Amino acid sequence: MNADRHSRPRVCIVVAAPLTLKAFMLGHLQALARIAEVTMVADFTLEDAAFPWPAEITRVAIPIARPIAPLADLRALLALLRLFRRERFDLVHSITPKAGLLAMLAGALARVPQRLHCFTGQVWVTRTGLMRFLLKSADRLVARLATHVLADSASQREFLIAQGIVAAPKSKVLAHGSICGVDTARFRPDAAARERVRQSHGIAPDAVLFLFLGRINRDKGMLDLARAFAEAGARQANAHLLLVGPDEEHLRTALSTAAAGGATRLHYAGITDRPQEYFAAADVFCLPSYREGFGTTVIEAAATGMPAIGSRIYGITDAIVEGETGLLFEAGDVRQLAHCMRTLSGDALLRARMGERARERALRDFSSAVVTAALLDYYAKLLPRRVD
Q1: Which of 30, 66, 70, 359 could join 305 via S-S bond, C-beta 3.0 to 4.6 A?
Q2: How many Cα atoms occupy the beta-carbon half-sphere of 47 within 13 Å?
Q3: DSSP 22
Q4: Buried b vs exposed e over 49-59: b needs ≥16 C-beta within 10 Å?
Q5: Closest Cα partner for 386 from 86, 115, 58, 36?
């Protein structure tokens, strides 16, 4: 057993929040553990101990805060440096901005031979002034410290290259994009879930239900969505809007105000560990975001047979094929968004046709099996066989 351990490459996955591992990396980690020794680093808490993590994967708790916190960040950097020097990993793979900055810096100082960072969206896109400069510079430093870079969509990779963040030769997109793909056995049409969710929110079976699922904040275009729903809903009396996810900026009152006359048909569900049921319950998915790496939720919605409306920005344009699997509008243009909502709410045949094409594409190009296979193939090219 010891001989086998020493002959296997050693990989460390670094993120800030354990939720990133649970939501995006679990399938990859389980597959990776079959060919390598895997350690995962995150800000694990006692609550995370109850989660059914794969037994063969080592967990290391290092507090990595999402906000800028110089002293805490320095402590996390030193902890990562000690870990990397002690464990002599062959590859360190980071995801999310803060984890990337700390892991790539510690990896370079510890001389980890392969340092891989995955970009999943750029915070600085919606910032201005000094903060934009600092955050953009941090991304540029991460890319320079990394030996290899992944982007979770082709359009995001092109954007990063055009902005001078990454170099084309060291960057890649796995398969057709997405950080993890979609579990097509979990995300599928489900008539029972559709009925159950609608009943719980007092939404009629024949109502047209628009859905947003994700972090509720301004960068996601939530106020635009509420205003567009007010306009579209005024002409479609049986239209409803359901928002699912954490209200990060306490926008509920502002959203209800923005929805105006449609506020009585605006519903909230909070955080869920069963997103597939909400996708199955809805008719149209909406992602009016101002920044997005790929738009995984669009593909999850597609797997349930649902068309999507999304802003025409990098990342989302990879997830939606305009006119085939959904509709696109210019980010921030409430009138265009309302027009898209009216178009789909008023045409059941169009929704059905786009939903069918969206599901076909999700199953063909974005299944989790496809993306995991692409990641393992990529790892195989980077990882040596260890013989200590």
Answers
A1: 359
A2: 4
A3: I
A4: eeeebeeebeb
A5: 36
Q: Is residue 303 part of a domain?
A: yes
Same domain, 361 and 375: no
> Do 385 and 3 touch, CB atoms closer than 8 A?
no
- Distance from C-alpha of 207 to C-alpha of 284, rounded to nearest angstrom: 11
CATH code, domain with 122: 3.40.50.2000
User: What predicted TM-score, i.e. pTM, was given to this entire model?
Assistant: 0.88
Is 387 domain-assigned? no
CA–CA dist 364, 350 (Å, integer): 21
The answer to whether residues 273 and 246 touch, using CB atoms and an 8 Å cutoff, is no
Residue-wise pLDDT tens digits, 307-362: 999 999 999 999 999 999 999 999 999 999 999 999 999 999 999 999 999 999 99
- pLDDT tens figures, 197-209: 999 999 999 999 9
Domain count, the chain: 2
Strands (E), the chain: 10-14, 37-42, 58-61, 91-95, 114-119, 148-151, 171-172, 208-213, 239-244, 266-270, 284-287, 308-311, 326-329
At CA 234, angle to CA 302 and CA 245, rounded to 5?
40
d(CA 186, CA 194): 14
Check whether residue 66 and residue 100 sit in a common domain: yes
Tokens of 381: 């090219």
